[in-house]
Amino acid sequence: MSEVIRIKGMTRTYTIGDIEVLALRGIDLKVERGEYVAVMGPSGSGKSTLMNLIGCLDKPTSGTYELDGVDVSALDDTALAAVRLQKLGFIFQGFNLLARTSAVRNVALPLFYAGDPNREKKAIAALEEVGLGDRISHRPNELSGGQQQRVAIARALVNDPALILADEPTGNLDSTTAEGIMAVFERLNGGGRTVIMVTHDENVAHHAKRIVRLLDGVVVSDDSVTNRTV
Amino acid sequence: MNKFREFLIEALAVLWSNRLRSLLTMLGLIIGVGSVITTLAVGDSMNRSVKNLLSPFSQAASFVSPKEDQPDPQNAAIRYEDAQRIAPRVADASAVYPVVEIVTTTEVRHTEKTLVVDTDGAGVGFDQTPLAEGRRFTVDDVTAHRHVAILSDQARLELFPDGGPVSGRSVRLAGIYYTVVAVQQKPLNGGALGGSSDDITVTVPYSLIPELGYTYVDGLAVVARDQDKVAQVGDEAIAALQKIHGTRAQYDAQDLKSVNDIINKTFTVLTLVVGFVAGISLLVGGVGIMNIMLVSVSERTREIGIRKAIGASRRDIAVQFLTEALMLCCIGGLIGLIFGVGVAEIVIHAAIAKVVGTVVSFAWFPIVTIAIAFSAGVGLIFGIYPAIRASYLNPIDCLRYE
Q: Which residues 361-400 in chain B show a CB within 8 A of chain A?
């Protein structure tokens, strides 16, 4: 099984009052191990919904979703939490670090929930991997935006996930810092990690190897990137 | 377990980073636990102090005397010989003897003093106050109508102020000389019960009652062989007296065991009532904690979202917030315990000791156990709802929350 993601006929409907909103109207998507995919689309296209579903934060209304060989579309909340813990690494636009907590403790958090006794050592290794080996005791407010996002990336990869999910990872960063972050993603993918990134920025998207475009809840294009920015 | 320790450390860090708020949140609980502890400790101390007052008196003896209000008091009055007459009818009694207490005044070195003449039987009778010197009355003392006397500590001080042993020396009461055979120790209770400590008390064998000029006595001391049968021998003695005086004659049997029981019941009820009122402040403290925990959950919605996205289960989130509430309560309870014990000590030393004479502390173990149990209980009861609420938050909504 070399497919990390296999989605078939996935729909997601929200009910707001009496109105049904079809956020996703039948998505088919396969992502192989080691791929680097950008998901693009204007706001309202359903890309956030898709991201939440891929990230096991939400459940599809219909269709199936296999993550790393496990059918997660039928799992309950507790089982989904375990899947997020073991198979997924999240990176958010707003970094989402715990404010009063040092970098190393932020990174170690997933390992804490997993009950890993070596979490401190692994967290330091992950911070070194993103080039922050000298900032382990710093708190988020003592770090720049780019450094905070690197801490978040270290946290996402510390539990050795099958998939790294990044939601507008450079959205809050200036272009120079953003380039640095993209270089980190490039290096992670080069090391064999599967990365899915949601963005509305064409320049950022062109760092990926493949771009999936959504519009009104369906995939409208799915192409390999020929003119990659590396 | 290792995980729980981490939760504990994390909870302490969160509480410490909001020191003032944590302290104010705890305040309700501190006052609640403090007042419950003060109530229990003071109640316990009072109970023990009162029992201490009674400790010189035998718990095996029942004192049978005529009731105060009755149709024919003249007929009900107990005669000296009644003791001997009813003794065979009270199977479980080791002794039945008449008791009088004669209170007069006497002049000691030109000062008017109260003189109390008590009667008692052989051996360790009704009054169990330990002896400082000498011996108790013997059966021979009683049967041979010997003129012997036991002095109270105060009597020795007044009558023999020069000190030294006084056994063998003589005292004169109403023109008759008595040989001192013993001196009692200074009573623990300072004489708060059964007269003032300034009284000169002289105890003589009961067989001298007729000689003292008394046909009628205050009552009968009925000593049970077994302390548990003290109420029974009292009832038997009453029945036996009614055989002589008729059923219209009414008697009371008082024994310390039932007095003790009444004291226990009274203090239990009193402690429960005051404790209940104090418990209300505990409830208010608990509601305060729940309130702040709910505020804390909504303030940290984003943090909950992050933790859930990373893979924290509902249980992890619930345990985190419950641990915080528990820590808040346990620290508050500890402060409340110290505060409550402090107030109790002040009350005991300042008030009870003044009235009762001696300081009797309270039992520590139940007090500490109750403090811990109450605070942990409040933490659990009022922490569980905010914790569950936090654990059921939707991570997507949480991450969007600003």
A: 395-396, 399
Q: What is the mean pLDDT of residues B221-241?
A: 88
Q: For residue B153, give the 3-state DSSP assignment.
A: helix
B309·A96 Cβ contact <8 A: yes
pLDDT tens by residue, B127-138: 778 888 889 999
| Among B228, B153, B140, residue whose Cα is nearest residue B196 | B153
Tens of pLDDT, residues B338-367: 999 999 889 888 877 776 666 677 788 888
Instruction: For residue range A105-141, list pLDDT tens digits in order.
Output: 999 999 999 988 899 999 999 999 999 999 999 999 9
Tokens of B215: 């046909």
Contact B316 A82 (CB under 8 A): no
CA–CA gap between residue A32 and residue A9 (Å, rounded): 18
Residue B3: its chain A contacts at CB < 8 A? 112, 115
CB nearest to B303's CB, from A78, A98, A159: A98
Whether B21 contacts chain A with CB within 8 A: no
Cβ separation of A96 and B302 shorter than 8 Å?
Answer: yes
Domain annotation for chain A: domains and CATH numbers: 34-63+77-224 (3.40.50.300)
Residue type, B388: I
pLDDT > 70: percent of chain B? 95
Q: Kindly determine whether residue B3 and residue A112, on different chains, have CB atoms separated by under 8 Å.
A: yes
Predicted local confidence at residue B368, as pLDDT: 86
Task: Please give the C-alpha separations between residue B65 and each of B83, B249, B250, in angstroms, as whole numbers.
Answer: 12, 11, 9
Contact B311 A86 (CB under 8 A): yes
Pick from A10, A115, A121, A5: nearest CA to A61? A10
How many beta-carbon pairs below 8 A join chains A and B? 60
Query: B8 and chain A: CB distance < 8 Å anywhere?
Result: no
Task: Tell whether the model's pLDDT for residue A218 goes beyond 90.
Answer: yes
- Check if the beta carbon of residue B49 is closer than 8 Å to that of residue B360: yes
Return mean pLDDT, chain A: 92
Provide the whole-model pTM. Answer: 0.75
Contact, A198 vs A39, CB < 8 A? yes
Band the pLDDT of B6: cuts 50, 70, 90.
Answer: confident
Q: For residue B275, give every residue at least 6 positions away whose Cβ sits within 8 Å of its Cβ, in sequence order, or none.
A: B36, B39, B40, B43
b/e map A76-86, b = 16+ CB within 10 Å = ebeebbbbbbb
